[in-house]
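# nightly structure sweep
# worker-07 picked up a monomer target from the shared queue
# config: single-sequence mode, recycle default, output format = structure tokens
# input follows
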Amino acid sequence: MTRQSTMRAAVLETHNAPLRPSTVPTPEIGPREVLVQIRASGVNPLDTKIHAGAAAHARHPLPAILGLDLAGVIEQTGRDVSRFNRGDEVYGMTGGVGGVQGSLAEFAAVDADLLALKPANLSMREAAALPLIFITAWEGLIDRAALKAGQKVLIHGGAGGVGHMAIQIARAFGAEMFATGSASQRATIEGFGATFIDRDTAIATYVAEHTGGRGFDVVYDTVGGQVLDASFEAVRRFGHVVSALGWGSHALAPLSFRSATYSGVFTLLPLLSGEGRAHHGEIMAEATRLVEAGKLLPMLDARHFTLENVDDAYALIRDHATQGKLVVDI
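# output follows
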């Protein structure tokens, strides 16, 4: 097999500068890595924060190749990799932070533990839209809250990336779903199978209406700030609150008085620390299982982007002008 010595990539040289299409060396793989020929790169709001140098928790030394999520085909396997073979279609959250090369490139050397086989019934574009948002939703609901069938679950921000994943995961586990959003998002939230709650409704009102005043068994905050404070008031006694954006200062009294518990989700930790990477691969295998069973589908923006105009995708995210996940075709 003749290995391609160079590849095309979108390179960030200075924070907030345009991503420059460039020719760079194709990475070498280590013994536990695979070389993935990238077909699609998912774009997340976090990518735009890394691009701006505004995410203290997600530093990426410059010059850098961004892009957290990928879907592609394995071109080469390291000597210690036994789970995958050349030609396998895979996906995962594999880089774009902490000095690990991202997915805005033709190839990436990827820790095999981070990957799973792509669902057979999804396109590369659809698959690339899933990893970060699915892992974040799964870690909150399953790993932290230990979700059980029959529980009443409230998702704050149900039409967002993590939110619409969380609704589908919880429904697949047999939970009764509720989700907040704006009036314009009602059809989206109901389409995924959750009871819609207008985000401007008073907490006491929707807790009384949907839980008889007892509160929800699990509350997942995907918004942060005051919404996390509201979550502490919406949870039932001995219930559990999860947040993917619990970075502020919050009063814990409402939570304590309910003898409820709280967990934070920091999805980047395995990429930054190296710890827990195999579990991310396991989570992506669960995503494949749910997708192939017809229980999970990403909400995808129909617009197409390439390495040459990826800045346009970033601008749409910054302007809150997306209609689902954006994906770059590689």
